[in-house]
Design the sequence.
């Protein structure tokens, strides 16, 4: 089985998967060693699947150092469903409006969806900088009665990422970590809820991980549709309705890969730091010939958004890298330019090849 194209997948999503996970998945589609039938035909009511969900939960707990204060649910609908479900469950008349940080494309989507459900306040908006910088969460003027503060830890479109900073201690903190979850250690105790959909670092799309503190679950009002109530999914151990068996299976393989092959999140973080440093270094060496969208203090380790300053040059670079079997480098439709996504499974060898392509292109075209 060749892994070359997977290694050179710089897409913002679906992202690359580890070569060993792809190989195991390929075999499991034909026959699961544990059951003798295809993973695609496995019942969600089988003992095998019940054990799989338990293993996935325990692997996440071990990788994150997650305390028993948290419940874990594997849900569907991506982060987009969470955008509306969170205020349904955790905002209410007993609290002031929840606060939202609007720092880029996805946090704006989250804010807009939440406002369809409940009156929400915008604690900070990055529009003034064209979403090229991030705030210090501790310095935001947050109503201490607010239901919660919500933010997106990594903006995939603009290439912005919050560092390991403390949030306000007087309101529950909720974070969408879809694009940097499991890329580095997290101080999970700071959060009342963390959620992340797959197709970035977790596996194929179809499953969303929700980590929720029990103290937050006490706020959920009665009368919600059962499928939109977090308590339903926790009570039924992520098996209330037919779950995405295949996606959870691959997620479990990824968690094993992080544990057994990478050696945990600290090791994963070190790899990701080397990858992003190499790309930013290659771009910065070009001086004014390239523009990196995010300002330096907030540059993402996961997504590098940049432009050669001319749409024709950007297109030429994407064609240039495509000839070298590098895919997924087109910028998001809302921003344009070029975007290199460096999710966990993108290898350092792939990044070295991209850096070389950047230098070759600049020498030939600029």
Sequence:
């Amino acid at each position: 089985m060749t892994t070359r194209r997977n290694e050179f997948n710089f897409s913002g999503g679906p992202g690359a998967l580890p070569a060993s996970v792809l190989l195991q998945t390929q075999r499991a589609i034909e026959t699961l060693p544990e059951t003798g039938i295809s993973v695609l035909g496995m019942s969600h009511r089988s003992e095998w699947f019940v054990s799989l969900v338990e293993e996935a939960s325990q692997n996440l707990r071990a990788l994150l150092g997650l305390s028993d204060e948290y419940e874990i649910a594997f849900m569907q609908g991506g982060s987009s469903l969470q955008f509306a479900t969170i205020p349904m469950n955790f905002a209410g008349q007993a609290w002031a409006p929840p606060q939202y940080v609007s720092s880029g494309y996805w946090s704006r989507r989250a804010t807009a969806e939440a406002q369809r459900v409940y009156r929400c306040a915008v604690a900070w908006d990055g529009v003034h900088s064209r979403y090229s910088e991030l705030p210090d969460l501790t310095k935001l003027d947050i109503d201490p009665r607010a239901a919660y503060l919500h933010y997106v830890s990594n903006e995939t479109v603009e290439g912005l990422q919050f560092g390991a900073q403390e949030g306000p201690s007087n309101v529950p903190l909720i974070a969408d970590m879809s694009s940097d979850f499991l890329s580095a250690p997290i101080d999970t105790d700071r959060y009342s809820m963390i959620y992340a959909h797959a197709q970035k670092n977790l596996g194929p799309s179809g499953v969303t991980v929700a980590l929720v503190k029990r103290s937050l679950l006490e706020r959920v009002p009665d009368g919600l549709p059962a499928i939109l109530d977090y308590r339903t999914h926790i009570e039924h151990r992520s098996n209330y309705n037919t779950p995405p068996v295949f996606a959870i299976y691959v997620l479990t393989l990824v968690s094993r890969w992080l544990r057994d092959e990478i050696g945990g999140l600290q090791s994963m973080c070190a790899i990701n730091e080397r990858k992003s440093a190499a790309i930013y270094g290659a771009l910065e060496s070009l001086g004014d010939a390239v523009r990196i969208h995010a300002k330096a203090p907030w540059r993402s380790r996961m997504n590098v958004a940049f432009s050669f300053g001319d749409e024709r040059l950007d297109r030429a670079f994407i064609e240039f890298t495509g000839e070298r079997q590098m895919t997924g480098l087109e910028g998001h439709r809302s921003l344009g330019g070029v975007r290199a996504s460096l999710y966990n499974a993108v290898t350092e060898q792939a990044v070295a090849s991209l850096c070389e392509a950047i230098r070759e292109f600049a020498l030939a075209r600029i």
Summary: The longest strand covers residues 70-75. The chain has two domains: 21-261, 264-365. Residues 1-5 have pLDDT under 50 and may be disordered. The chain has eleven helices and twelve strands.
